[in-house]
## 1
Amino acid sequence: MRLKHTFIHSLLLSAVLMTYPVILPADTSSAAPDTVQSDGRKMPCEPQVLSEIDESAQKPSAFTPPHTVSMPFQQPSHLPDIRDSRDQEAITILTQQNEAEAKEAQEATPVESKNLNEEAEEEIQQIPDPLAPVNKVMFYVNDKLYFWALKPATQIYSHIVPEDFRIVFSNAYDNLWAPARIVNNLLQLRFKSAGNELIRFLFNSFAGVGGLADAARDALGIKKQEADFGQTLGHYGVGHGFYLVLPVFGPSSLRDGVGLAGDWFMYPLTYVGTSHLTFGQSAGISAHEKVNNLSFRLGDYESLKESAIDPYVSMRDVYDQYRKKKVEESKQ
């Protein structure tokens, strides 16, 4: 009986030993290093491996859960990234610069547009002409008077009287207007011009035989210093008032009409005519002066009228520009 039990134990042991090699190489690569889970029992490993496993188990683990790891390369979530902050700062600076440039442009544009508008207004601004219907009628009358009477008379006069004689007459009339130029230069505070005009008047009156020759220009090099009372009024800021077309005299204004009357008070023939000359003689002298001066400018009016779309408006604009230029010259 004891042999029988021993034999049975031997068979069981042999069965166990036969099954051991099969269980041992079970998939240990995916299991933990110290144990292989099979049927709930822990299988022993080699002593060296086991000691290494024990040492590693005793050492603190280098692995730390993610929420406890200190990562210096990663910015906290509540702080902006340095590159992003620089980019944001650059964008802010550029935005501020753009806003400043836009603001300057907006501020400069109205100034520039205002300056352009003012220049345009100055160019467009014309002498007031509230009496345009009356002035146009007078312009038409003077136009017919010129072509029907004044121009033919001047052509005949130019044909009969040589140019040298006409220059002599022109010098004499010009010398008679010298007192008006002297006074107006003084009123405009142009003392040098007033002094030169006085020397010219005295020299021409004596050396030029009553002004028949412009001796001061030829001998002394002193030219005529233009000045009139209308220019003097403009020098002190008096505006045109409004446009006027005077009979025979042509384009004028309220200011220059008053100035023309003032100049006549400084014209010597005004006093000679009232005391020694009849009205017809005074009118004849004035007509001769007009024709004689026109003989040197014959054809100018025709050229202006032919080139103008509206001769009345063109004449008014030319007169306005001419008088503005004279006023500006008085301030130099």
## 2
Amino acid sequence: MKVTFLKSLLLAGLAASCFNVNAHRAWIVPQETQLSGENRWVSFDAAVSNDIFVSNYNPGRFTGVKVNEPDGSATQVENMHKGKYRHVFDLALKQQGTYKIFMETSGLYAQWKENGKPKWYPGRGEAFSMAEFEKRVPKKADDLNISQYARRMETFVTLGAPTNKTLKPTNKGLELVAITHPNELYAGEEAQFKFLIDGKPAVGAEITAIQEGTRFRDAQEEIKSKSNDEGIVTLKWNGAGRYFLEAEYEDSQAKAPAMVRNGTYIAVLEVLPD
């Protein structure tokens, strides 16, 4: 489950590089994750960057951001603005409970050779289409490899008491199931999450969590772990602050014509002091 050239191209397929590509990471950061009162607003930054939560590479494309309200219904962000290095937008919190803010994509990726030259579909920044896949990808070709992929990016905001309806899995792609609520994370406590791949435990998923402030440290101080036979991972935080969490998974349980199934999951989480 290491980052390969193939994976780099796959990751570029979600909203034109809105996922980890080589050293660059994409993220959606809420300015607050836990609020009280009524009819509150939260602002967000979103970008693709070299440093965690520092907008210094490109703004990516975040116009596909979705929101689930605490009752499970869909709503939209407001005031979306694209700058030179980041997107900014707002979300009105009209219901009490936990909101999920996310992006997702899935499809097939093909790589082959034609007259000795590498070919692939979809191309960098190109959205997957089954019709285009069937039209452009040959049935037989030199070094033909087809992967089934799913990418998901999430963050969570709670108004009032945390709720769980928005945390239910869709059973599609690589997903986080919150054993510890994502808006109830504390520096002195371990957190447990369960990872699913298409609704079943993602055994051996590789998880990396990085605390904000890497620009001011000599090392990234990554927290690394791997999910157990039930897909569960336990994390102990390096301290309070915001964290970039990434999970990667790959196996051979793909649906034809794919030969490999892989998933990437990204979340931005806030860990509060003890």
